[in-house]
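Continuing the batch. This is chain 6 of the set; chains 1 through 5 are on the previous pages. Same settings as before, nothing changed between runs. Recording input and output for traceability.
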Amino acid sequence: METVFANMSISLDGYIAGPNDSRENPLGDGGERLHEWMVDTKSWKDQHGLDGGETNRDSEIVAESNENVGAAIMGRRMFDNGEGPWGDDPFEGYWGDDPPFAVPVFVLTHHPREPLEMEGGTTFHFVTDGIERALKRASDTVDDEDIEIVGGATVVQQFIEAGLIDELQLHVVPVLLGDGIRLFESLDSDPIELERTRMVGSPDVTHLWFDVGTDRNEQ
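Output for chain 6:
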């Protein structure tokens, strides 16, 4: 069975984006700081068709996180920071004509939209009937590959509360944003025990892996 995992950069005080996020400022004020460790790596630059980058332990972890992903799931706000109807000329995402996913991406939304096929193997599918349906559609597209929950915070929370996520990969950046979007702000559940299975430190970030302890085979 495939592994369903969330892979998030997070500040030391628990934020995955800064305040005042918008389509023009998708990571919020100061939010880009959370991803500096990653965008400097060779693996991230290769994924985005760029030259250069550092070849180090962080780069190895970026490559490792991406190597077996067969589908991804994200929320509408991560796709375009929007909430309402798509309109006559809908936004096509932040990643240009050739997004770095290179797999089917299932976007959770309340508003129907036709699939958006991009270059490089990425097709955005818009799912209006909830996280369980999005996960089923993603699972149907993979063959012994993993499914990545790429954000945002509300989507990760929903998957955790529903017992539909196997692993959390958190990359803790030594910065205090002080405000913004917290990853675990609104969990409405009993305490959830996590088992830390791995930890790797570098000068710029601490990588943590947690087993969420859910056996989806029993559901």
